[in-house]
From TrEMBL:
Residues 126-282 form the Rod shape-determining protein MreC beta-barrel core domain. One of its GO terms (biological process) is regulation of cell shape. This is Cell shape-determining protein MreC. It comes from Paenibacillus phyllosphaerae. Gene3D superfamilies: Rod shape-determining protein MreC, domain 1 (2.40.10.340), Rod shape-determining protein MreC, domain 2 (2.40.10.350). Keywords: Cell shape, Coiled coil. InterPro entries: Cell/Rod_1, Cell/Rod_MreC_2, MreC, MreC_beta-barrel_core. It comes from the Bacteria.
Length: 291
């Protein structure tokens, strides 16, 4: 209580001094020379005014800094939200762009094939892959309810994948061409030829080497024009694989075991490690023959 009364007296005294100085200022404003008591009072009042105004300036600056920090925080929050929205929209755009490119590639593939052959392509999703070296199987989401039957050919936009080996009402199993083995009773050799040399070239793709990842083409005549870099396609001479399906690219050619014919190593066109969508090929003539 005593301290409060003391401070109150000091404040009242300061106010009186300030008022006194103000009155003195008005009274001496017209005089050019001041007496030493007047100078002392004016100097003392300047010190008092500085003592009052400086803390007031600090307080005003403090509150101004707080306001600036609040505005800065609000701006940062808006920028953070904008950056998050941009990242989300960018990811969405990239996904749509990838889907568009994928669908365009699939559409272009089917359109090219339609212009070449009267085939119908049923798009299917790969839902499972059994990578067992003995019985590798690809599971797709089309079955007998969709018109799928055994021995229908399955391709990707890159090349030949395999044939349908088992059909359920809503799903089917596909045996890939990487299961070709001349010692297996379930394998089906593929009658093949060279794209652009269909009337001059012929052979049988009948084996796959798991270690090299290469298909083997045999029964190639010595006079056959097949050469390294040629594209191997199905010839359509067999009862299963329709003509024009891309199998792969010739990597090398060599003389066969008995020297009468040649063999060739074929690099498969289909990417069996990253199959997500495939096409089941429906051949109209084959379907009518089956009926």
């Amino acid at each position: 209580m005593f301290n409060w009364m003391r401070n109150r007296r000091i404040i009242v005294l300061m106010i009186v001094v300030v008022l006194f100085v103000a009155v003195m200022g008005f009274s001496i404003s017209d005089r050019k020379k001041l007496t030493w008591p007047e100078n002392f009072i004016l100097d003392a009042s300047g010190v008092v005014q500085h003592w009052f105004y400086k803390p007031a300036g600090y307080i005003a600056g403090f509150f101004e800094d707080i306001a600036n920090l609040r505005h800065l925080y609000q701006e940062n929050e808006e920028l953070r939200k904008t950056a998050a929205a941009y990242a989300r929209d960018k990811n969405k755009y990239n996904f749509i762009e990838q889907e568009n490119q994928r669908l365009q590639a699939a559409l272009g593939f089917t359109e090219r094939q339609k212009n070449m052959y009267d085939y119908r392509y049923l798009i299917a999703q790969v839902i499972a892959v059994d990578n067992s070296p003995i019985n590798q199987t690809i599971r797709i989401n089309l079955g007998s309810k969709d018109g799928i039957t055994t021995d229908m050919v399955v391709v990707s936009i890159d090349g030949l994948v395999g044939i349908v080996s088992k059909v359920d009402p809503f799903y089917s199993n596909v045996m890939p061409i990487t299961q070709l083995d001349e010692k297996s009773s379930v394998s089906k050799s593929i009658a093949a030829t060279v794209k652009g040399k269909e009337l001059l070239s012929f052979g049988m793709v009948d084996n796959y080497d798991q270690e090299t990842g290469m298909l083997s083409m045999s029964r190639i005549a010595e006079t056959d024009p097949l050469a390294e870099g040629d594209t191997i396609i199905t010839s359509g001479l067999g009862e299963v694989f329709p003509k024009g399906m891309v199998i792969g690219t010739v990597k090398s050619r060599q003389v066969g075991d008995y020297g009468l014919t040649h063999t060739a190593l074929i690099d498969p066109a289909a990417d069996f490690e990253h199959l997500t969508e495939v096409f089941v090929v429906e051949v109209p003539n084959a379907k009518e023959s089956a009926q």
